[in-house]
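Board work, copied verbatim: DNA helicase RecQ
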Amino acid sequence: MLKQAQHILEQYFGFTTFRQGQEKIIENVLNGQHALGIMPTGGGKSLCYQIPGLVLDGTAVIISPLISLMKDQVDSLTSLGIPATYINSSLSWEEQYDRLQQASQGTYQFIYVAPERFDSDGFIRVLRSTKLSLIAFDEAHCISQWGHDFRPSYRSVVQQIQKIGSLPQIMALTATATKEVTEDIKRLLTIQEEHVVNTGFARDNLHFRIVKGQEKHDFIQGYIQSRSNESGIIYASTRKDVDRLHQWLTREGYKVDKYHAGLSEEQRKAAQNSFIQEETTIMVATNAFGMGIDKSNVRYVIHYALPMNIESYYQEAGRAGRDGEPSDCILLFSAKDIQLQKFLIEQSMMEEDKKAVEYQKLQQMINFCHTDRCLQQYMLTYFKDPFEHPPCERCGNCQHQGELKDITKEAQMILSCVKRMEQRFGSGLVAKVLKGSKSQKVIEGRWNKISTYGLLSYLTEKEITQMIQFLVAEGYLAVGEGKFPLLRLTSESVPVLKGAEQVNMLLETTSAMAKDTDYDQELFDELRTLRKSIAEEHDIPPYIVFSDATLKQFAIHLPKTREDMLALKGVGEKKYEQYGELFLQAIENYAGQTS
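↓ predict structure ↓
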């Protein structure tokens, strides 16, 4: 059956080899085993259930919490001639009934459903009478109580599917799973350790960058000016910020839309469609946007403010470059963002122990913004990635886009001050003491009498606080849990205090990042225009025709024949039959004009 899987990979999807982990996950399911796949966003998770669904006899049920993902994937499958549908709340009762009737007759090879569908006894009855090839849980971290996006309705499906009776193979797939989440999924779905495939979290095509100390609007303006035709997402923490940014960018003449929970469902749907169909190039949104948006050619994701935790950040940033092409992930950091996130945690309805965990995760996010280590390495360490990874050589820290400054003297003063304040206070008060502040809190505590008072008076409190956060990120200082984390020394601070270790800190400067330009840009733009017209004609998203990565292959290799085109990544026989001749003609016309 694995040979059949390989043939389908080439014929339908245009790839000659599986990506890392895909073959093993597919093999587990074809051998009759439940399987768990932990793969990064853009790692090709959907093929892990689509190919077994095409090999095995019967109907594959894909459970997803993301309505938008369902439509995108069904559009993609049906464009290849594969019978597929979705059943969710976006359909009328009559449409749902009709599709259920068709499903019971075995009409579809794939049915995408929301988890709430399993609360219906009628739906369970349909599944009982349908020959099932497999059941796949997409975004499987949602079933774990330890997952950052835990949904009780998703977890209840685990009990509900038992009512079906004789179950087919079960597959779970996720891009973000810590050790606790992985163990929870294995236990709930009875997946054996030997059938877990973890390809790691590394995304080699993403360029991560933290921007500190720059006016955010100025940075965004400078960054997107040269990228007017590229798709990008700008995430903001609040609806007010989304509205403000959207209004500003619209006034500046950019093709921009917005998305947040304060808009009507119709407005959100229209904004999402215009972005997917490339009528707009920039989406400004809260984190309500993006889950399951299967748009492969997002070239950049900018975070206008600090996310709440690294899991959310990596998932949101990972919406860039799903096609494997070089893409930027930029976080615009400001210290005041920390207070907003603390406020959001404090105002939440979580139990106190859960809040403590969230404060701890927020501190890890703050540390990430102040580290000088490779940014990808930092995140992989956080996720306990199972593989060894050298520095990525692509992120802002690896490229040293800034000035490296020796702050050993300042570090010694900060560490000494923390010690003299008996390790009982947070960064705010320590910074005030080092600055020489005459604030009431400093005077009342008699901190103006200790030897470290005013030692860093030549710096601003903001600069001192940034240095303190940097020392936390690098492990010279540790912070306690809670809303007001207290600073304490670590064993790493001893050699610094003794003068046996130097401390260097990277100061931010430039705003440019590398762009991939090894293809004919003019031809690429012409092919994108052709792709958009084809997509409009067939009422499908442009990336379903061909991805940006495939169009770039066309613009590099200039294929002249069917065989030339089929040799390129992303062109299978089915795709060639539908669109190949149109693109060959466009390339030939372009070559004739430029020769």
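The chain has 26 helices and 17 strands.
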